[in-house]
Every structure is written in C-alpha cells, then in structure tokens.
Write a structure and sequence with these properties.
Protein name (chains A, B, C): Aspartate carbamoyltransferase
Largest interface: A-B, 27 and 27 residues
Pathway (chains A, B, C): Pyrimidine metabolism; UMP biosynthesis via de novo pathway; (S)-dihydroorotate from bicarbonate: step 2/3
CATH topology of the largest domain in chain A: Rossmann fold
Distance between the termini of chain A: 15 Å
Shape of chain A: globular
Enzyme class (chains A, B, C): transferase
CATH superfamily of the largest domain in chain A: Aspartate/ornithine carbamoyltransferase
Oligomer: homotrimer
Pfam families (chains A, B, C): OTCace, OTCace_N
CATH class of the largest domain in chain A: Alpha Beta
Low-confidence stretches of chain A: none
Function (chains A, B, C): Catalyzes the condensation of carbamoyl phosphate and aspartate to form carbamoyl aspartate and inorganic phosphate, the committed step in the de novo pyrimidine nucleotide biosynthesis pathway.
Number of strands of chain A: 9
Mean pLDDT of chain A: 93
Number of domains of chain A: 2
Helix content of chain A: 25-40%
CATH architecture of the largest domain in chain A: 3-Layer(aba) Sandwich
Chain lengths: 304, 304, 304
C-alpha cells in the first residue's frame, strides 16, 4: 500500500497504481456516492506556484469525498513574504489540516516538507522534480482508452525538461508497454532518464519524426515545446511546426488513437482536433477528480 | 423558463424575471431553510477581473443552498498566465463543477465560453457587455421598495459606459415603467440603447438636471461618474458635484423615494444619506444573495 | 460575557478569558465533536494584509464548528481597488455573513468597522493596534504549559513595536504573574505600555540581558527583532545575536521552560530547539484552532 505521503511516481508499485486506478473507476462511475467517505476532513492546499487544474481538482476531490480544503493562498498573501522557512510553514499548517498538498518551485521541496510533518503530504509539483498525481491521472486515462498492457505509446514534444513525461515514462515500466519518444534533437530525453528506463527493462525507441512511428501508436501523448528553450523565434517556429498535431497529421494514425496532453496547450494541438473522438486531453484533465479522490481516500484512511 | 445559461438580461422574459424574483423572496424570508436544496453541488468561480460583491454573494448563495464553490483564484495564480485560451480553461473546469460563474474583461467572453461547455454558465460581467444577475437584483430591490408596475424611476450618472444601466433599462421595458435618464451631455445614453428602448415601447425621457424630475420619482438609481472620463480635474469636479446626492438634494423628493446604487460608490451619495430610510443601496447589495440563490436554484435544477 | 465583537484584549475580563480557554480545552480534547455546533454559519474573512496562520486557523475553526467561510480575497482582487471605503465594504459584507474577521493595516480600523455592522466582528490585527485572538491563544498555551497563576514569564525581543507583546502583557495583569521584559535599550517597552501595566498593579521588571533572569522563568516568549529597525546591518547583527535562543542558551534555564514565539520566526530561535521538549511555538500556532473555535462559538451564539 501507499505510505503516508506521495512524493514521486517512483514510489508506486504496479499494485499501488492498480489499487488507485480501480478505486478511481468506482468514484468516476458514481461521483456523488462518495460524499460520506471523509466528512469533516480538511486538506490544506499550499501552492507556492500558479496552478488551475491541479489545485481545483484536488479541491473538487476533497469536497466530493465529503471533506473540505483550507487554502494558504498566494505567496504574496502569506507569511512566506515575512521570510518564514518552508519547514516552519508546513509544521504550522499540519496543525490545522488532515493532509497537505504542496506545490513548490524548488526540486526536493516536497520530500523535505514531508520529513517535517506527521500528516499525509502529496507532492503536487516540485520544480523540475515530480508530480506523481499527474502520472496517476495519465495512467488512468491511458487505461480507460487503450489499456495498460500490450500498449504502444508515443510521447512527443519537450522530453528534456518535462517532469510529467519523465514520471509517466518511469511508471509505464510497470506494464507491458512499448514507449516511443519523439522530439527534436535538442529536446531529447535526458541521459539519466533513458538510463533509468533501460535499467527497468523498458522497451524504448527514440525518433526525431512522428511519421514513421505514428501508425503503430495506440496513444499519442503531446507536450508543449516552450519558446524560451530556443535562441531565436525562427528556430522555435520551425521546430514547433514539426510537432504540431492537426487532423491531417492523424490521417496515418489508427482510427482510435487517443491524443493526450497534460494541458495547458498553446498550439501543439490544433483546435480542429477538439471535436474528434481522438481528443482525449479534456477527459484527461477531468480524470484528475476521480483519481485524486482515490488518492486522498487512500492517504486519509491511513490517518484514522 | 431560463435556459441552461444566463448570458444577458435581454434573454429574460417578464415571466422568467418574476419566477426568479418570487423564488428570491421565499429564500429571503427564510435564508436557512434552503440548505438542502443542492447538497454537494459545486459552483466554479472564474473571475478574470476583481470583484467583491458579485463573487462573495455567489459564494454565499451556493453555500446557503447546501452546495459549495471551487475558486479559480486570480489570473496571476492560474494557468491563464501560461497562455491558455479561455475556451480551454472553461472546458477543463466544467469537468470539476456543476456550474460556472464567469467574469472576464472581454465583451462576448461569456457567450463564447458558454458555447464550449455543457454545464450552466452565468455571465458575471463581460467587459462593457452584460451583467444580468446584477439586473435581477436591481429589479428585486425595485420591486421590494416600489413595485415594478406604475413605477417612475430616475437613472442618473454615467449612462454612456455603465453596463448595469443599459441592462436594467432594457429589463424594465417588460414592466409598466416611466424611465428618466439624468446625466451630463457627455455621458448620455448611447444612441443604440435609446433606440432599443424606443423599439421596446419604453416610456423614456432624458434630462441634464435632476431638479425638475426628482419630485416624480419612486426610485432614484445613482451610478458613479468616473474621473477618467474627463480631460481635466476641474471639469470632472464641476460635473460630479452636480450629480451628487445629499440630504438637501432629497428635500424635493417623495418621502419614500428609494435611493439605489450598484456600488462601490466613491462620493456620488453623501454618507449622511446612509442612515435615512431612503438609503436602499446596502439592502440592494445584500439582495444579491437571495436573488443569486434563486438563479442558481433554477440553473442547477435543469442540470438534474 | 464577551460582547458582540472582539476588538482588543483590554476588553477581556479574567472571567471572559477563562470561559474561552475552558471551552477551547474541550474543543482541543475532541476536535471532531464540534461539527454540529454552528451548521451553515458563514464567517467572512476580510484580510487587507498578508496572513497565513491567523487566516487559516480562523478558516479551520469555522469549518470544525460545522460552518464555513467566504473570503474577500486579496485587496488586489476586490472592490477596494475601485476606491471603496472600509465602512462600505464591511456594510456590504455583513449582508452575506454571520460574522466578520478583519485584518487591516490602519490602527483603529476594526473599531470603526464594528460600529458600522450588526454582525459580530473580530479584530485580527489593525496595524500597530491590537490582535486579541493571538493574545487568547498565547494565554491558552501558557496555561497548558505552566499555568496562569504563580507564573514567571520572560518576554524578549522587540518590545517597542510588537502589538502581540503589548496585548499579552496587559492580559497577564488579570493573573498572578511576574513579567520580565528583555530587550536592547532601543527596543524597550513604550512608556505608555509600562504605565498601563503599573496602573494595573502588574509585577514588572526590565532587563537588557537574558542571563540573570533566565533561571527563574517558567515561560520564555521570544519575538522577532526586525532588521529594518536598525540603521546598519552590523548593528542589527550584533543586537540580534544577543537575543537568539540556542540549546546552549537554555543550559541555565529550568528543564521545563516553555519557549514560545508568535511566528513567523527568522532565526531568533535555532532549529536545534525544535525537537526539544521546550519548543512550544508550533503547539502555540496549532492552539489557534481550538481557541478560535471557542471564540467563534461564543460570538456566533450571541447572534442567535
């Protein structure tokens, strides 16, 4: 079973993942049936960086379970401005709440914070580090659309900096999955991640172009290529254009390929995809609620 | 009946208005009796611009109905900063909530957003456009204080830019009302609004001075004249001074004239009015709760 | 009994304090037992200045009592930006809520606001003025750790500007307490506070060094010395260093001396103290919940 805190997707065994995903399926099937799971439980939301999706879906999840949240608010409106350390902040807040969700710009922040508190803590993003509840909702979405075994997935875009991608790739090594990574040369998977995947026995291939591998894919997971990674605008436009998905791009794909994206997107996926049956990214975002309900349900239970 | 979304006061028939106002009266008579109307329902508050009154009264209304809210927070703390489109933002959020309240600086934003979501959406202000729940609470306040038939109302101040005024004037054409508009020449009703009112068969008169028409008024609705509309401070002071309400101003008014204001006021109405029986603007603000309860009650019901 | 509003610790009699503290003890003993005390009650949080502890613990307290909060949000996201007066803001908000918690940068703001509203109002800090619920949680913590009679307390640090210190010192005059004030010459208690304490018959001593008085103390209450009080960095470092608590400092103290701090701390107390049995400051922060539950319980009751 999951321990008291979820800090990285690496701590999740195949069994952990399946337990959370199964429970999420139950919650998704009847969202209003869970209102008596955790009455009166309070979840503290500590977001030191902007968030819409993650914060709102944790809040929704807590409330759908019969609990509620208390929100630290923005850094500007908190004592952090007065120079308080993160350790002190979470030690104070654990006295108010039954669990903590933490997003922080510094890598390792969640791990450090978890060492200072006795309540369950979820890492909701620590800089270039981890964001394991995103990985769980990605896995849930993949399972719903294509299953997690005998799966061929393409992961495309910024593979160098995207924490989402690294966690997902690692978690997929628990399953029978062929992983194809598609990116420009300059945004390839870091050597350390590639090494980890090989160590875990993963089936991994890398490509600079989508074309050759597209017909084999059950899932195409697209991420944003950030303008600021490129020295000049022309270079960015050229690269970004090559990795943009349009209805024409999908002509050579399986009819039921599921197109995913962690959102927000800028223009990696054309709006013309939105109303096709391939568009899976809004469902993916919505899956944040049942998956985070299942996660909180598990963490808050260990608290009783 | 109201449809799934409330985008503009123009979509409200006399029957719609009366249904909402009647229900609001019931809620106002016994605010604590509604706690079991919508248990567990979640309303998403998406405010892309500052708000106190509208946001807090929607939040109060949702909670008094037994529901709750999830708040997108300020634009600075959301994914909007990362360049997400409004359409994408609301499509994600509809997966978390049973309804959306949207305020956005761009005219037409609510209409566009409503086309992208399946949950009920309330326009809580779209730039120079509409703010129909404000109109409903204005109508409720007028009805409580003077009735909506055989009514003589004066609407004074900035009639050119005030979206509140335009929506109210239009909604009043559903009733037997004589509308007097009082403003400096430079802030008169736009020609298009005047045309609409005449088309709707409204009884409309325009004035530059309050004096002549004041004795006939049952209701005097005052709005703020914004400093930035005037090229220099002297000109502003001269104009603003003419349209400022003091106890002396009301000497020639009916004893029970109801003085209204959408708030916030700066100094259009002297604080000396606050404790008179004519001061209706705080009640007007408070009426936001039962009126928005009635509105949400209607919209969330269509959701079942 | 407490009146409708809590504006300053000076309004609290010994009996008031004991009533709140006794009730807080009951809530602390069984936090989940209070969920049916105030179902449906709404507390408005109006924070015109940053806060973590005070705001989150009031929110937690309201929710643990079965109620909920509505949050004005930051000044930047409210109508205050449009030039609304504080009096108007609270008069509007009282129509939404069953009580108001107000923090405001201007001294006297809470008193003025309370005169304009009929719902209970708690002063959660008015600039250099008062913060009485902090005093109550300080008293609670002292009582839990050392009792409030036959007590010897040392209060150290910035005694000149700290509103927390002034309120606590005054409240302690209700009990049999020997108060020792330890600070650099430039940050001594203001003459007016010293005068008040003598008038109230308090046992008061002032010191520039902790050393001599430390062995006698049951409680050592430390506050932050702010850098900006000093003309240059060297001077600040010299002074701050003298009033910093380390495990070595405590060698000469009673074994069970309780070290308190209103938090946030910067480095007035070494992290090496955190895991000792003397460290009482995190408990002190956590005590904000039962104490504010007891306070709200009392104030909201008078509302029925």
């Amino acid at each position: 079973m999951l321990g008291r805190s979820l800090l990285t997707a690496k701590q999740l065994s195949r069994e952990d993942i399946e337990t959370v995903l199964d429970r999420a399926s139950e919650f998704a099937a009847d969202p209003s049936a869970a209102g008596d799971r955790h009455p009166g439980k309070l979840l503290a939301l500590c977001f030191f960086e902007p968030s819409t999706r993650t914060k709102m879906s944790f809040e929704t999840a807590a409330k759908r379970l019969g609990g509620d949240v208390i929100d630290m608010g923005s850094v500007e409106s908190s004592s952090v401005k007065k120079g308080e350390s993160l350790a002190d902040t979470v030690r104070v807040i654990e006295g108010y709440a039954d669990g903590i969700v933490l997003r922080h710009p510094k890598q390792g922040a969640a791990k450090m914070a978890a060492e200072h508190v006795d309540v369950p803590l979820v890492n909701a993003g620590d800089g270039a580090g981890h964001h394991p509840s995103q990985t769980l909702l990605d896995l849930y979405t993949i399972r719903e659309n294509a299953g997690l075994d005998d799966l061929t997935i393409g992961i495309m875009g910024d593979l160098k900096y995207g924490r989402t991608v690294h966690s997902l790739a690692h978690a997929l090594t628990n399953f029978d999955v062929r992983q194809h990574f598609i990116s420009p040369q300059s945004l390839k998977l870091p050597r350390s991640v590639r090494y980890d995947l090989h160590e875990a026995g993963a089936h991994v291939r890398e490509h600079e172009e989508l074309e050759a591998v597209l017909p084999a894919l059950d899932v195409l997971y697209v991420t944003r290529i950030q303008r600021e990674r490129f020295p000049d605008e022309d270079e960015y436009q050229k690269v970004a254009g090559q990795y943009r998905i349009t209805p024409e791009t999908l002509d050579d794909a399986k009819d039921d390929v599921a197109v995913m994206h962690p959102l927000p997107r800028v223009d990696e996926i054309s709006a013309a995809i939105d109303d096709t049956s391939n568009a899976t990214y809004f469902d993916q975002a919505h899956n944040g609620v049942p998956v985070r309900m299942a996660l909180l349900d598990s963490l808050l239970q260990t608290d009783d």
